[in-house]
């Protein structure tokens, strides 16, 4: 299957299903040749970024944000044709989502606080001198900035005359 088809499908699915598909695709493209722990760490970074709201409020928005993850970097014609790796990526993504749905103190974090990662053998990002959280396989994970979960503003907290709608 081609990346373009997967991203189109994600655009018409219900948000939670779409996010699972986008996370699976990202794990596949970024880490299918990495260990289970490396795949889990990639998923964790995407979920942490989603929670911050800085790159979008859904996993699909986060992983397709310009030049952030493989779905926005590789050709839309890229084929995801390793069915064994795809199955593993789906399993990793679904498990990561279940883990991330737990309260923050109960989650099993692989790369605590990591907001970015890079395969330094093929990339040299400007933030590569940031705090290194871990190196797992070919990826080095970084805490480039402190990410806080976005705060949903309650209507009662908005200034008078402004509504959420």
Automatic annotation (TrEMBL):
GO molecular function terms listed in the Swiss-Prot or TrEMBL record: hydrolase activity
Pfam families, sorted: Hydrolase_2
Domain (Cell wall hydrolase SleB): residue spans on this chain: 34-142
Keywords: Hydrolase
Protein name as catalogued: Cell Wall Hydrolase family protein
């Amino acid at each position: 299957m081609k990346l373009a088809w997967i991203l189109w499908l994600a655009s018409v699915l219900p948000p939670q299903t779409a996010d699972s598909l986008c996370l699976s695709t990202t794990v596949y493209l970024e880490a299918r040749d990495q260990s289970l722990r490396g795949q889990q760490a990639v998923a964790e970074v995407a979920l942490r970024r989603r929670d911050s709201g800085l790159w979008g409020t859904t996993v699909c928005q986060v992983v397709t944000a310009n030049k952030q993850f493989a779905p926005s970097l590789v050709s839309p014609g890229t084929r995801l044709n390793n069915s064994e790796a795809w199955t593993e990526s789906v399993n990793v993504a679904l498990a990561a989502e279940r883990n991330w749905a737990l309260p923050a103190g109960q989650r099993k974090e692989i790369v605590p606080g990591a907001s970015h990662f890079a395969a330094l053998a093929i990339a040299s990002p400007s933030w590569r001198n940031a705090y290194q959280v871990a190196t797992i396989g070919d990826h080095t994970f970084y805490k480039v900035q402190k990410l806080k979960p976005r705060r949903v503003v309650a209507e009662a907290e908005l200034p008078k005359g402004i509504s959420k709608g």
